[in-house]
UniProtKB/TrEMBL annotation:
It catalyses: 1D-myo-inositol 2-acetamido-2-deoxy-alpha-D-glucopyranoside + H2O = 1D-myo-inositol 2-amino-2-deoxy-alpha-D-glucopyranoside + acetate. Its EC number is 3.5.1.103. This is 1D-myo-inositol 2-acetamido-2-deoxy-alpha-D-glucopyranoside deacetylase. Keywords: Hydrolase, Metal-binding, Zinc. Zn(2+) binds at residues 15, 18, 147. One of its GO terms (molecular function) is zinc ion binding. It comes from Streptomyces brasiliensis. SUPFAM superfamilies: LmbE-like (SSF102588).
């Protein structure tokens, strides 16, 4: 039997940068606490829009290679050693935004066979044997094809892994409680004149915003604020960071949240502050 840490967390994301934006504080916290944190990213995000003018010559495979280096740097900031591309780097292509012809590219993740992709993820699950999995909701948080597909693949892999003998004890979706988002955007509105961003995004631009009663779990990663911001900065083609705020290529400012929120979807919970709450060291072991 391979030696594995007692607590094992697997996160499934669509593109390099999604993990740092959504879960950077959570990942840094659990990594610092000695848990095994495993990230599976489904595509290299090679259709992402590049922010810095001096890097805009990067497109396609060259951008994918660059974003893998950014991801590597971000994981160094978060203290996460185990990060992988689903099926290996380049196996699945970025599908582009919903409705673009890119969606029809047979190499795109959107066109992937869900069972086949889920089979690749199941191999990781059976190796790492996580007790906790974090994924997107069924709209992928905000409707991007790769995020929707990442949801489908993650949820199917949960089933396939259970069939193969490893039941994941807790499955979570990334969330942001609406009142938290509203308060953060109110602070942002007050700070906006001092920021390098001309405009603010809106609450509904944030993936995964739901009413507060849907939230089961809040992970306080405030102690890892600097690591999260540094990881986001490492994704320099995609993210511009200024203090506790950031913007994507649309240049709309958003708050960086350092308490990160989750909805448990395969059980009942309220008021949790730990994704591993209720899980003993032996939980999730195949018997
Ligand atoms: Zn993404």
């Amino acid at each position: 039997m391979t030696e594995l840490p007692d607590r094992r967390l697997l996160l499934v994301h669509a593109h390099p940068d999604d993990e740092s934006i959504n879960n950077g504080a959570t990942m840094a916290r659990y990594a610092a606490e000695g848990a095994r944190v495993t990230l599976v990213t489904c595509t290299l995000g090679e259709r992402g829009e590049v922010i810095p003018a001096e890097l805009r010559h990067l497109t396609g495979a060259a951008l994918g290679e660059h974003r893998l280096r950014e991801l590597t740097a971000a994981m160094r900031e978060l203290g996460v050693e185990d990060f992988r591309l689903l099926g290996g780097a380049g196996r699945y292509g970025d599908s582009g935004m919903m409705g673009l012809p890119d969606n029809d590219d047979p190499h795109s993740f959107w066109q992937a066979d869900v069972d086949e992709a889920a089979g690749l993820l199941t191999e990781v699950i059976l190796e790492v044997r996580p007790q906790v999995l974090v994924a997107y909701d069924d709209n992928g948080g905000y409707g991007h094809p790769d995020h929707i597909q990442a949801h489908r693949v993650a949820m199917r892999a949960v089933e396939l892994a259970a069939d193969a003998g490893h039941r994941i004890a807790k499955v979570y979706w990334n969330r942001v409680p609406r009142p938290v988002a509203e308060a953060a955007f109110a602070r942002l509105a007050a700070d906006l004149p001092g920021l390098p961003f001309a405009k603010s995004a809106a609450v509904d631009d944030v993936p995964g915003v739901v009413d507060a009663d849907r939230i089961t779990t809040a992970v306080d990663g405030t102690a890892h604020t600097a690591a999260k911001a540094a990881a986001m900065r490492a994704h320099a083609t995609q993210i511009e960071v200024s203090g506790p705020y950031f913007a994507l290529s649309n240049e709309l400012a958003q708050p960086i949240l350092t308490t990160e929120y989750y909805e448990l979807v395969n059980g009942e919970a309220t008021g949790e502050t730990d994704l591993f709450a209720g899980i003993g060291p032996a939980a999730g072991e195949a018997s």
